[in-house]
Amino acid sequence: MSHRTTGPLAAAATIAAMLIHQAPAAAQATITIDGSSTVFPIAEAVAEEFQRANRNVRVTVGISGTGGGFKKFCRGETQMQNASRPILQAEMEECRRAGVRYVELPIAFDAITVVVSPRNRFVECLTVAELRRVWEPAAQGRITNWNQVRQGFPDARLTLYGPGADSGTFDYFTEAVVGRAKASRGDYTASEDDNVLVQGVARDPNALGYIPFSYVASHADTLRTVAVDGGRGCVRPSAETVEDGTYSPLSRPLFLYVNLQALDRPEVRGIAEFYLSPAGRNLIREVRYVPLPEQAYEIGLRRIRERIAGTGYGGQPEVGMPIVEVLRHDPRE
Amino acid sequence: MSGGALSAEAAARGMPRASVGRLRSNADLIFAAIGLVALMIGVLTLTALIVDLAVRGLPRLDLQFLTSFPSRRPAQAGILSAWVGTALVMLVTAVVTIPLGIAAAIYLEEYAPKNRLTAVIEVNVSNLAGVPSIIYGLLALGLFVYLLGLGRSILTAGLTLALLVLPIIIVATREALRAVPPTVREAAYALGATRWRVIADHLLPYSSGGIATGVIIALSRAIGETAPLITIGALTFIAFLPAPPVRPEFPFVSFQWLFDPFTVLPIQMFNWVSRPGTDFLPNAAAAGLVLILMTIAMNLTAIYIRIRVRRKVKW
């Protein structure tokens, strides 16, 4: 009997002894990608196809959120960072302190989409000013009825759904609509899981919410999109209006940041170029995002080729600026 | 029970003799009904969940699903990296936590002096069983990932879950040891056995059924944990397996897999559930079924051990 009980102990001791001898060996050509959950479907598709073509390369993709991902990226733990917004001043500082330099590559468009239930028949279009009236911090506890949003809307309770504060979608929407990132009323149903928002809005005829476009595209029968008037008339989000820049200010570019030092590795450079290739563009369409104008990919490829580090945004979340405009500026660190 | 004993008991409680029978049988009936309802709530909920999962997931559950890596296409996606990850993490957890937990319980129950320090330790062990799992994740991130430099690996995950369920095993083992009648100990000591001989030859064999139950409850909890593993950085998309544990050249075994990145079934499920659209929901349900099957397999092992022990132990 004593044999049987000491068995596991002995095994544990043996393993512990083996471990001391076996220091963590250098991983074999592993590319680690982490960051935004919004960009995850693109990264997953790219990783899947890239590994199929390059059997000796291992690619991992994590979901830490844009902010959480930058923390790892700027510590040098990951080689590539998915971001649903440009890098912020504080994150640039963190990267600089750790000596991590990076190349900024815009890869696709997403459109933040304002949605209501199909049973809501009175909202067709909302102006940015009306959205601000609903979502600004001062609205908390005050704007609670649809007739406060616009005269002529029915007397019905206004229920709100939106992403939580860790989400890049939240950051961008508040920046674009309220004027300051993360400035939002707090009395709404918040979830990091966009499907929860989809369910909530679909069931409630008085609901108003905002979610990434890819979730709307796959729930076309349970949600109704609301056109947004950014000053040039009502525009409904679609691949066309996002691509030509008329769906403003709620269309946003998605980014890939690549560790400059890792870019020396052929497999890292290979996958970065694959993101920007025509094959990568097809993957972006397949997972229901909108590709950037052709020119953006050419500039991205040049940044990889010439190892141009830094961001074109200067650490500020910029809204509504056409992507080609941003890319024309030289990146700074 | 004889009528005489009944009335004697009733008299002792100061009840009138005549009403005792009816009162008793009524209370008996009511309590049995409450108990049955309570049982049914649990069993029916569980059944409904499993049936729902089976209806959604069973059509998707095939060999291709078990042998494929995740994919953006729902029909090609599989859980190979996830179930292998879960199995390896559970292996590390079991190898670490079972000996540690049992040893700690034996010490507390049989060796520890009954003083204030022991009392403090006992209270803390019980309290640790109720600490939210995310706290263990944060501890592991600081201790294993950064301080000890073990990386975001299978080893880190296994150690994290081992810590998480250690209190459960300690508490269950102590209960099992306490259930061994003191007469067994006394008889063995009277024959001149040392403390270790009493533990190894009598206490552990007699209590191993109860210990097995505790171990299974602990591992069943660990297998479904997501929060601490996300905290230490388990990955979401991973389309390769850890390094194999055997290799052709000396020394023939490799522990490289302990340091490899991994994913586990609950994380894979979570990822599929939170995707745009409903295409991946059957995959999530099928992955849930596999997780339940793995848990049931562990439970059956425990039941088997328990039956074998019961057959041998006769007091």
From TrEMBL, chain A:
One Pfam match: PBP_like_2
Alphabetized SUPFAM superfamilies for the sequence: Periplasmic binding protein-like II
GO biological process: cell adhesion; phosphate ion transport
InterPro entries, per database record: PBP_domain, Phos-bd, Phosphate_ABC_transporter
Example GO molecular function: phosphate ion binding
Every PBP domain range: 23-278
Location in the cell: Periplasm; Secreted
Keywords from the named record: Periplasm, Phosphate transport, Secreted, Signal, Transport
CDD domains recorded: PBP2_phosphate_like_2
Domain of life: Bacteria
Signal peptide: 1-25
Main location class: periplasm
Gene Ontology terms: cellular component: extracellular region; periplasmic space
Function of the protein: Involved in the system for phosphate transport across the cytoplasmic membrane.
NCBIfam families: ptsS_2
Family that this chain belongs to: Belongs to the PstS family.
Alphabetized PANTHER family for the sequence: PERIPLASMIC PHOSPHATE BINDING COMPONENT OF PHOSPHATE ABC TRANSPORTER (PTHR30570), PHOSPHATE-BINDING PROTEIN PSTS (PTHR30570:SF1)
Name of the protein in question: Phosphate-binding protein
Protein species of origin: Caldovatus sediminis
Organism lineage string: Bacteria, Pseudomonadati, Pseudomonadota, Alphaproteobacteria, Acetobacterales
From TrEMBL, chain B:
Membrane topology, record value: Multi-pass membrane protein
Cellular compartments annotated: Cell inner membrane; Cell membrane
Chain segments annotated as transmembrane: 29-55, 75-108, 128-148, 154-172, 226-243, 285-305
Superkingdom of this protein's organism: Bacteria
Stored InterPro entries: MetI-like (IPR000515), MetI-like_sf (IPR035906), Phosphate_PstA (IPR005672)
Keyword presence, Cell membrane: yes
Keywords carried by this UniProt record: Cell membrane, Membrane, Transmembrane, Transmembrane helix, Transport
GO cellular component term of the entry, any: plasma membrane
Positions of the ABC transmembrane type-1 domain: 83-302
Family, per entry: Belongs to the binding-protein-dependent transport system permease family. CysTW subfamily.
Database matches in NCBIfam families: 3a0107s02c (TIGR00974)
Protein name: Phosphate transport system permease protein PstA
Taxonomic path: Bacteria, Pseudomonadati, Pseudomonadota, Alphaproteobacteria, Acetobacterales
